[in-house]
């Protein structure tokens, strides 16, 4: 059977002059099988979610008794998702801005300056990426509780704590992407600007930062993703009434799967997809990620 | 002469980020380490003590070591699958000259934005009781059912579909960094494609494979939503177990001990694997 399939492939591929050995083609078929499996693994859950969101019945059964788009119009009847989306967007936006403010200067220091302890600081700033999210969540929670006891100031569930914790996981991405970007930039352009009499500040503002534009956009993008979709760490820091979208979806899914939650997820996905497409017109995503 | 102001500028640039990591990660971790040595008491929750009993309890009980073992094997299986499935896709994308390339990259990036719950939802529809697979099997041979949800297979598939895009993106950038003229040279010197792959492309991509592998392994060790939703109540992995100790049992000292066991296991394995790759890379 396998050899027949292979023979077919060879027949189809015969137009390509390079196909000479049957052995090579077997490997080729295998590679294509891996590619198709990989693409299916990534695509199936998303396609399935989109499909379920159009089921008419409130219960997921195959085949469905009919299709309708009414779940999309009914989302507004469930404020828990709307509120959670608001919280998620607010936290992710603040964490993105904050991580750029902290991460870009840090990456400049790491790449453009020589100082004692540079290697250690490089490792330290990237270290939150290697600590499991649940561990960061529990330790931040414990620290916040101790702080609450010491200061008697309610902190759990506040934006400050959430943003601080999200900064911890977004700053490493900004540092990582900006460092990679800076290393690839030609330093002689900055030196030329300095030689022509530009002050350090205006070299930074008019030469270095504009050259870093693609790295900064990529960093902002990644910071936003990492913050927006975080569950593991955020789980420990939310309070009743202050929940992020992924966690409210998770809590709903633990209880049931229905077309409503699929529709919520699709709206979120479509908003993000259109933002990405917009961004792709401005800077080519294939070049920055 | 200009050394000192330079160091000062660098310090001002990197200071705030360093302060954040020290204050929000290092200090809380130290506090958590202290908590892990405390004693748990049903009446008072946490009693100050200096005892290793939380760690010993974990290591003595086959239930907890079994959970650690499950977590490790799931992470290893998904990492292997990610490497196997991610490389061909990344290679095609990296070497593609087509105008559809950016569309392809976009299709890989897009799932990154869509949280793990969404992927879990889709797989629940495919694998669950009354889901797509179950219904098809039921239609082909009536009376039989084939629920795959709440098995380790479902968890592996779920984690794979979340982690694969990370692997593809990491590998794609690494492969793009490999000069394609080196491959052309191998071709023109008479290497067939498989030889070119094993002797030229793979050795050059090895550091990238290690980076991607470590990233994906950590993500899998850390997985929370996927084992919870696709594995069901019986299936236990470290992260959901830690959360349950904290939220349901209120046993913070034991949760802290689990946190350190998880972290030390992950860090040890990633350090060992990168040391291994580095040594092989130097030898090659």
TrEMBL record, chain B:
Transmembrane segments: 12-37, 67-91, 103-128, 148-171, 204-232, 252-277
Keyword Hydrolase among record annotations: no
Record keyword Phosphoprotein present: no
Origin superkingdom: Bacteria
Residue ranges constituting the ABC transmembrane type-1 domain according to the UniProt record: 68-273
Keywords, comma-separated and alphabetical: Cell membrane, Membrane, Transmembrane, Transmembrane helix, Transport
Topology with respect to the bilayer: Multi-pass membrane protein
Pfam families: BPD_transp_1 (PF00528)
Places the protein is found: Cell membrane
PANTHER family given in the database record: ABC TRANSPORTER PERMEASE PROTEIN, INNER MEMBRANE ABC TRANSPORTER PERMEASE PROTEIN YDCU-RELATED-RELATED
Assigned protein family: Belongs to the binding-protein-dependent transport system permease family. CysTW subfamily.
Name this polypeptide is given: ABC transporter permease
Protein species of origin: Pararoseomonas baculiformis
């Amino acid at each position: 059977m396998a050899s027949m399939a292979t023979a077919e492939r060879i027949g189809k591929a015969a137009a390509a002059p390079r196909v000479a050995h049957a052995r090579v083609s077997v490997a080729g078929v295998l590679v294509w099988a891996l590619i198709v499996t990989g693409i299916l693994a990534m695509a199936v859950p998303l396609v399935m979610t989109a499909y379920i969101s159009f089921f008419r019945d409130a219960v997921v059964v195959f085949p469905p008794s009919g299709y309708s788009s009414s779940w999309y119009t009914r989302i507004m009847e469930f404020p828990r998702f709307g509120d959670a989306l608001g919280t998620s967007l607010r936290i992710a936006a603040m964490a993105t801005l904050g991580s750029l403010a902290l991460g870009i200067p840090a990456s400049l220091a790491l790449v453009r300056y020589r100082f004692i302890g540079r290697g250690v600081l490089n490792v330290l700033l990237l270290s939150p990426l290697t600590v499991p999210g649940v561990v960061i969540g529990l330790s931040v929670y414990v620290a916040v509780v101790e702080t609450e006891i010491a200061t008697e100031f309610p902190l759990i569930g506040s934006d400050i704590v959430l943003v601080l914790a999200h900064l911890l996981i977004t700053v490493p991405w900004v540092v990582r992407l900006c460092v990679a970007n800076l290393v690839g930039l030609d330093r002689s352009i900055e030196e030329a600007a300095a030689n022509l009499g530009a002050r350090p500040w205006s070299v930074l503002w008019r030469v270095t930062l504009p050259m870093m534009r693609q790295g900064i956009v990529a960093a902002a993008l990644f910071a936003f993703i990492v913050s927006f979709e975080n569950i593991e760490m955020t789980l420990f820091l939310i309070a009743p009434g202050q929940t992020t979208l992924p966690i409210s979806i998770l809590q709903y899914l633990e209880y049931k799967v229905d077309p409503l939650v699929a529709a919520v997820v699709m709206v979120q996905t479509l908003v993000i997809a259109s933002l990405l497409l917009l961004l792709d017109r401005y800077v080519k995503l294939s070049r920055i990620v | 002469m200009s050394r000192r102001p330079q160091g000062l500028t660098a310090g001002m640039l990197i200071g705030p980020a360093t302060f954040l990591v020290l204050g929000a990660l290092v200090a809380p971790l130290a506090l958590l380490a202290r908590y892990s040595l405390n004693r748990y008491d049903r009446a008072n929750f946490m009693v100050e003590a200096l005892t290793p009993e939380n760690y010993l309890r974990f290591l003595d009980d086959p239930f907890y070591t079994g959970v650690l073992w499950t977590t490790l094997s799931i992470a290893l299986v998904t990492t292997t699958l990610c490497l196997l499935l991610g490389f061909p896709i990344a290679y095609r994308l990296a070497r593609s000259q087509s105008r559809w390339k950016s569309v392809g990259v976009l299709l890989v990036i897009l799932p990154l934005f869509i949280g793990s719950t969404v992927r879990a939802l889709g797989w629940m529809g495919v694998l669950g009781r009354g889901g797509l697979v179950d219904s098809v099997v039921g239609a082909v041979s009536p009376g039989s059912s084939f629920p795959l949800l709440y098995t380790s297979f479902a968890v592996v598939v779920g984690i794979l579909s979340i982690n694969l895009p990370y692997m593809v993106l990491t590998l794609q950038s690494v492969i793009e960094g490999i000069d394609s003229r080196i491959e052309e040279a191998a071709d023109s010197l008479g290497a067939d494609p498989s030889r070119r792959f094993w002797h030229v492309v793979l050795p050059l991509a090895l550091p990238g494979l290690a980076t991607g592998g470590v990233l994906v392994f950590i993500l899998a060790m850390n997985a929370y939503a996927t084992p919870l939703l696709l594995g069901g109540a019986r299936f236990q992995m470290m992260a959901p177990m830690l959360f349950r100790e904290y939220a349901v049992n209120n046993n913070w000292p034991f949760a802290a001990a689990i946190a350190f066991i998880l972290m030390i296991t992950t860090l040890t394995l990633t350090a060992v694997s990168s040391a291994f790759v580095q040594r092989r890379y130097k030898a090659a």
